[in-house]
Amino acid sequence: MAILFDQIVIQTVNGIVTGMILALVASGLTLIFGIMDVVNFAHGELFMLGAYVGTTTLVATGNFWVALLVASVTIALLGAALQVTTLRPLLGRDPLTTILATFGISLVLQNYALWQYGPVARKIQEPFTGHFKLFYLEYPWYRVAIALLSAAIIGALWLFLKYGTYGIWIRATTQDRIMAAAMGIPVPLVHTAVFAIGAGMAAASGVLFGPLVGVNHAMGLDWVLKAFIVVVVGGMGNLGGSVLASIFVSLLEAYASLWVSPAQAVIVSFVVLILTLLFRPTGLFVPTPK
Amino acid sequence: MTSLGNGRAPLIRVDGIHTYYGKSHILHGVSLEVGRGEVVGLLGRNGVGKSTTLKTIMGIVHPTQGEITFEARPIARAAAHRPARLGVGYVPEDRRIFRLLTVMENLRTGLDRPGMTEARRQALLDKVYHYFPVLAERRSQAGGTLSGGEQQMLAIARAMMLEPKIILLDEPTEGLMPRMVAQIREIIDVLHRDGVAILLVEQNVPLTLEASDRVYIMEKGVVRHHAPAAELRLDDAVIHKYLGV
Amino acid sequence: MPADSPAPLLRTEGLTIRFGGLTALNDVNFAVAPGEIRAIIGPNGAGKSTFFNCVTGVLRPTAGRILFNGEDITGLAPHRISQKAIARSYQITNILPNATTLENVRIAAQSRRHAWSLLSHHRAHRDVLDRALAVLAALGLKGKEDELAANLSHGEQRHLEIGIALATEPRLLCLDEPTAGMSAAETHDTMELVRRISRDLTILIVEHDMQVVMELAQRITVLHYGEILAEGPPAEIQQNPKVLEVYLKT
């Protein structure tokens, strides 16, 4: 029994770490959907390209934190460019067109990465090694650092939305884009900015997660699927909900891997998704509208 | 007859606009004008296109034909946020308060503009709090928790934050208790005294005739009658024809 | 209603519908005689659409009864109401844009007859085709049978909408703002159409256009805040002080 308790604690820590990265990816996704009703199928590729830009910057500068910053900013700009050229002209059209557009972008970006960086996985070195003793495990400090950093980034986003000068523009446009324009808010610009922010956050997650897995052109696929599940479970457009849902689903998966293999533990997230859609389709953490 | 006849350029001129919702042809060539500082009423039965006219001016829908100018600048096909930036305020029929933003944040959507010093912001806020004290009380409350009447006050205050040259009011007294209708009437006067022009769409005929300088009456997507309010107050026949049964 | 008039085709007794704290219809006692053209008017929010929704089974009343031809139809599902020969046109057109004009009407006509015959070809049902062609003629759309419905003008589409309702061989036809968004010319055509089809039908029409109401209706029911404010022939309603007050707030 003592061993089981240890394992539960370890899985809790693992679940929270994975959950926070997932939250970082999912926040961008839910923010984008909430404000412009775009289901961004290219989000995983922005994550992946962020990781790649991180590897090259790391090689060039040797500094992990610079790589994190450069990757986030570069991919944010890429996101802005993509939104302006391919999504802005589609505003107000059938949602299917934006899904097709972002899906197309994801294919282009995946193949670009393959062409640019080759099929061999790359590695990002952690900025610091070092472990602490968690029961019988040598637990890397870096994993804890990821969770804290993700939380910090999401926290900064939340503060910006709530109190920042342009946070009000974003929140007003999310709630009622027509009335926001009638108040002089430049809605197209706000849309581009939010897409850029979402892309930047995805890129940051890619760099942060890079040291834990290999960086390859397909790394986005797993994550974007999980991120979509979490966005639905948390309530589409609901930032707090997606964070809670990320942690919730990741914890469940982590606990499930105590009994089944991690590959099978993934089933948990799908079960949660199905249950959510059946019983609380607006989101687990969202009060059901009357 | 749509021109002001006094030689001054109008603040807003709407010229022969046709607006569609999908295939539904709502406006069949609407023309009207509002001069600087004027209160102009727009009357007509339900469904004639009064709200659509305001929405077209505000850039919420684009006309397929015709032109709209603000201070001689064409705005009919401009980006949706242009009219507000130029000085057109809008108070829609369903108020459209940002429900999840607080009262203060709602006001800030109009208050947070380039060139707004702290002093000017405070002066504007003091002004609306003076005329709508309930908004001061509820400033940290979410917009969605306000009553219908309070939301109407907030919608008007929010438009005032833009320091507009003209405010488009769409049925501001609909569904309000008489006491609040009087408050609306008062704020129209206040705005008028401040030199803000008003284009007032209303179902409340006596209020409109009392508050307006001139009145247009619409029927089936066109302006059918135009007269100074003073004249219309005595013209029961026209009122009955276009507004009665 | 006068003592010697025929039994009403549609009647409501104490019809009430509440949505939470809002009473949309309050104790409405309505009756329309067979063959009548009755207009229902009233300011925004008076309950006109809600009334239609109750009669056509879209909404279930909170209290009261609806009787059609003496039969209680309260709370019946919309497809059942349609089987009872009540048809309705909508403010937002419900036509099938990618089908031809004839197909739109024929599908509706087919629902009334041979709805369940799986094995025979639809072209074998000559009676359905004849009915559809007759409806198109009444609509003034003869010659446009093979035109895709999406390509019709707005006015023609609204007429087609009425035609679809007509093809189900109703005894009561409910028209919901049939002239909304129409020009004066299209409105005139619609009035002609309603007059043409009114011979064998009872018609309820919700409208804002007073000219249409005054010229078409034999009787008018005025709704206000969910209650019947006044009822009577157009001339009477025009002079009714309570009605004037509501419309002009004088």
List keywords for this structure.
heterotrimer, A: 290 residues, mainly alpha, ABC transporter involved in vitamin B12 uptake, BtuC, two-stranded antiparallel sheet, 12 helices, globular, B: 245 residues, alpha/beta, Rossmann fold, 37% helix
Query: What fraction of the residues of chain A are assigned to beta strands by DSSP?
Result: under 5%
Question: What is the helix fraction of residues of chain A, given as a range?
Answer: over 70%
Mean pLDDT level of chain B: 92
**Coarse structural class of chain A:** mainly alpha
CATH fold label of chain A: ABC transporter involved in vitamin B12 uptake, BtuC
Largest sheet strand order of chain B: 6-7-8-3-9-10
Radius of gyration of chain B, whole Å: 18 Å
Identify the most extensive interface between protein chains. Answer: B-C, 24 and 30 residues
Which residue ranges of chain A are poorly predicted, with pLDDT under 50 across at least 5 consecutive positions?
A: none
CATH class of chain A: Mainly Alpha
Major sheet attributes of chain B: 6 strands, mixed
The domain count of chain A comes to 1
Shape, per Cα inertia axes of chain B: globular
Element pattern of chain B in H and E: EEEHEEHEHHHHEHEHEEHH
Count of DSSP-assigned helices of chain A:
12
Strand order of the largest sheet of chain A: 1-2
Terminal CA distance of chain B reads 25 Å
CATH class of the domain at 12-95 and 165-243 in chain B: Alpha Beta
Shape of chain A: globular
User: Structural class of the helices, strands and pairings of chain B?
Assistant: alpha/beta
